[in-house]
Amino acid sequence: MSILNVNGLKKVYSTRLGGNKVEALRNVTFSVEEGEYVAIMGESGSGKTTLLNILAALDRPTGGCVILDGKDLVTLKDSAIAAFRRDNLGFVFQDFNLLDTFTLEDNIYLPLVLAGTHHKEMKRRLDNIAKKLGIAELLKKYPYEVSGGQKQRAAVARALITGPRLILADEPTGALDSKSTDEMLRLFADINRGGQTILMVTHSIKAASRAGRVLFLGDGEVFHTLYRGNDTDEQMYQKISDTLTLISTGGDIK
Amino acid sequence: MNASLFPKLAVGGIKKNKRIYFPYMLTCIGMVMMYYIIGYLQNSKALENIPGASAIVSTMSFGCWVVAIFSCIFLFYTNSFLMRRRKKEFGLYNILGMGKRHIVRILVWESIITAIFSLVIGLLCGVGMSKLAELILINLMDGEITYSFDISLGSVFLTTSVFGSIFILIFLNSLRQIKFSSAVALLKSENTGEKPPKGNFILGFLGLGVLAAAYYIAITVADPVDAMGWFFIAVIMVIIGTYLIMIAGSVLFCRMLQKKKNYYYKPNHFVSVSSMVYRMKRNGAGLASICILATMVLVLVSTTTSLYFGVEDALNLRCPNDINVTLRSNNFEGENEKIISELRDKIISVADARSCKRTDIVDYRGVAAYSTIEGSNVKFTGVRDENNSSSVSLIYFVPIEDYNQTMGASESLSEEEVMLYAHGKKYSKETITFDGKKTFRVKKLADNFTKSGDLAVSVVPTLYVIVPNLDSSLDGIIKDGETYDGGIASNYWVYGFNSADCSEDEQLEIRDGILPFLRDLLDSDDDPGNGILSARIESKAAERQSFYSLYGTIFFLGIILSIVFIIAAVLIIYYKQISEGYEDASRFEIMQKVGMTKREIKRSINSQLLTVFFLPLMFAGVHLSFAFPLIRKILLLMNLQNVKLFAITTAVSFAVFALFYTVIYRMTSNAYYKIVSGATDRK
Ligand SMILES: Nc1ncnc2c1ncn2[C@@H]1O[C@H](COP(=O)(O)OP(=O)(O)OP(=O)(O)O)[C@@H](O)[C@H]1O
Ligand SMILES: [Mg+2]
Q1: Which atom of ligand 1 is nearest to the CA of A46?
Q2: Is the pLDDT of residue B457 over 60?
Q3: Beta bridge partners of B28
């Protein structure tokens, strides 16, 4: 069953004076099945962040539709969107987006508190996740007291704690060193094996090579898709880098 | 590098930061303007002709000092806020290859532009407003209005040098900050101190303790004379207490709330409480300053207004009679009686010549001496002992016939009896003994005695002893102006009357008509050895003029200083909102991503702003109510006994201030929302 359907998505940014128009997305169509791990790659400025923002209902498209779990996000009312986002989506960002006013624990609780969950229930859920992510010892610390990798793990915990239908990640390893990156990717793979659907935007071939499917975004469209099939991570890595070489040399891959 | 680049960069820097720079300049302009006006009034020709103008010079020069010192502290404070934001820009220039020498040159230009701009505009506004201020002041003083317009060069010079120095000091301070920090430190300066604050128990409770002690002092001090000294101690304690509570106590309070899981983990409280900790840490000092400024404004406005509007009350208190003559001598021979009756005739003839009806005539003789009262024994001390003033009483012997005549009573006393009228200190013994020699039975306590001017303002408790006969009753106690222990007593004669059907001018004429007679009496060449120590005349009409001059000036200065403090408070509020706006913008962006609706965010912002914003006002209100009894006692010293008037002006001041504060809140929170939503709307 497909959990996410994106059809003919279009996004045009118009500058303030209305003169210059930037067409960030022209016609994006794809779907994600339940339990899938999908990576989206593309050059800088190809519209990856724009796409993710629309999927997260943080921004509205100019045209096309996004059906998440049977609901059309585009027509969803503003007041319902926040609650919908809270209940169905989890986010992991490149720059962590943890609040410096909260301890890691409270940062992770934030979506649950907003949903009105009782604090005992929150504690129960956190205990599970924190052990899995290896941050049980760090919960009482503040973001400024822990490393980037640890911050990102807390952010992942915050995304997971609501039990979302879909996790959206924008360059989750972008600000991490290689060791933390490896840990983070292993974590994502683990979570995915546990049945979690993940959609990840990335520049990194290494990150994309862990995914089950890689979409290539360019000129406002998904112009190529790679499937893992039964490949190992290494083979997947090779396939992706071959594709990217082809793109950059202008070869036709369609 | 091209030399004209620096002025350009400086202007660009100011323009780019106009959100924080313009309010700063406006404040500078406001302070310069106020300073010029006060300086101008100090030298004003139009005010010189008003009776009692000497009060203006001293009051206004006091005002100059207050404004100068306050401006210095305050502009330093706001400039440090400005520098925090500018440093980042300077750090960037530094990293992009601009030497510190060049940055300093930009800074020099910025300072010069700011200083010249503020001084020129401030002086222009000052000159423009000074005439208006003068008219208002003359009006308050009940003086005559003139319509000449002039510029006080002295005040221009003074203003320029005072504020020039302040600007130079501020520049040097900025220079120091640039010189001693590295490029990286400059870049990061806006984000330093991200540590979440820990609640400091000791400081928090210390603040509470100091404040409680100050309140205790304020409500327990009983003696008006002591009140003044205690007032300043209490003020300092309140200031310290407020700062400690706002900075440490509030964080402590939030921390305690966070410990209560059932309370803390609720959508409404979760974000508010944790952000509040940060807000209070960042802005606790600012809030405390706002609170102190608000309290000062309220105290200033309520006291000076009630003094000014109570001026007639004070006047009636000070001068119960339109005309009042007091003669003091140490002549205890019969000759004194002759002087008195001659003078009485002259006074009456002067008054009657103007066909003024004399009513409410007060006419009594008396003998006065300082003493200490121990139990029922009155011990004469002679001169008033200043070191021991709290135990000293003034004893005033008045013959029963004069009492009856003045009060329109028909009391009688036997040889061993006296009547008492105590003012300031109660006397409740059955008998009274003087110097252990002579004892009288207290027949009764009189309900009232005439409130002569001396009695009205006396801070020394006074005991009137109505005796059957001055000579025979005092025989053995006071002889020839001396008590038996060598203390000095003196003879008094008080003569006063009202003349309601006379105009003020006529009353002044009466005073001027009587004055020569009093001079004659004092002139020892004409009549040597008459024993007259002093001869005074008080005219209510004359007093009225000097009362209005003095209280009008005080009122005016109170308003001017209040405006200065309000400008300062508004700027602090504005900066607080702006700086919080920048900090919160990114935070609310994240919250939105995590699933808060715009409405929830807005509600949370609102409740936080509201709490933080009205905290200072609430504290100011509490401070004011505790200060009330203390200030009332001080006002007593300044002839204001009308508690109701003071209570009303205090309440009105507070209401008006609260209204004004709310308006400011509205306006500045718009600036805040603009910044915060500028960040969230982009998404
Ligand atoms: N708010 C905006 N207003 C106008 N144009 C925008 C806005 N946001 C993005 N764009 C434009 O849309 C295009 C896509 O931007 P987007 O941020 O989605 O790229 P991206 O693929 O995420 O790039 P990167 O890999 O560098 O993060 C770019 O050309 C960008 O300039
Ligand atoms: Mg991007």
Answers
A1: 21
A2: no
A3: none
pLDDT one-digit tens code per residue, B22-38: 888 988 999 999 999 99
CB pairs < 8 Å spanning A and B: 77
Residues A141-154 as b or e (16 or more Cβ within 10 Å = b) = ebbeebeebbbbbb
Compute the distance between CA of residue B245 and CA of residue B620 in angstroms, rounded to an integer: 13
Answer whether B380's CB lies under 8 Å from B370's CB: yes
pLDDT of residue B388: 54
ipTM for the complex shown: 0.78
Question: Looking at the predicted structure, is the pLDDT value of residue B170 above 80?
Answer: yes
Closest by CA to B584, choosing from B603, B570, B607, B601, is B601
Kindly report the protein residue whose alpha carbon is nearest to atom 5 of ligand 1. Answer: A13
Distance (Å, whole) CA B244 – CA B224 = 30
Assess contact for B327 and B338: CB atoms under 8 A.
no
Across the interface, of A59, A106, A109, the residue whose CB is closest to B683 is A59
Q: Whose alpha carbon is nearest atom 3 of ligand 1?
A: A13
Name the residue type at position B84: R
> Which comes out higher in pLDDT, residue B603 or A151?
A151
pLDDT on residue B487: 62
Nearest-angstrom CA–CA distance, B83 and B90: 10
| Whether B587 and A99 lie within 8 Å, measured CB to CB | yes
Query: From ligand 2's centre to the CA of B665, what distance in Å?
Result: 38
- Three-class SS of residue A202? coil
Q: How many CB atoms lie within 10 A of CB B401?
A: 16
At B455, is the pLDDT very low, low, confident or very high (cuts 50, 70, 90)? low
Query: For residue B633, what is the enclosing H or E element?
Result: helix B598-637
| pLDDT level of residue B125 (50, 70, 90 thresholds) | very high
Interface test with A, best of B264, B594, B597 (most A CBs within 10 A): B594
Across residues B239-261, what is the average pLDDT? 86
∠ Cα B488 B493 B494 (to 5°): 125
Choosing from A12, A48, A52 the residue with most ligand 1 atoms within 8 A of its CB, the one to mutate for a pocket test is A48
3 state SS of B353: helix
State whether the Cα torsion B264-B266-B267-B268 is positive or negative: negative
Q: What residue ranges do the domains of chain B occupy?
A: 1-192, 193-320+541-570+577-683, 321-540
Mean of the per-residue pLDDT values of chain A: 87
Interface of A with B (CB under 8 A): 53, 56, 58-59, 78-79, 81-83, 85-87, 89, 91, 93, 97-102, 106, 109-111, 113-116, 118-119, 122, 142, 144, 158
Distance separating alpha carbons of residues B498 and B511, to the nearest angstrom:
13
Q: What is the DSSP-derived secondary structure letter of residue B388?
A: G
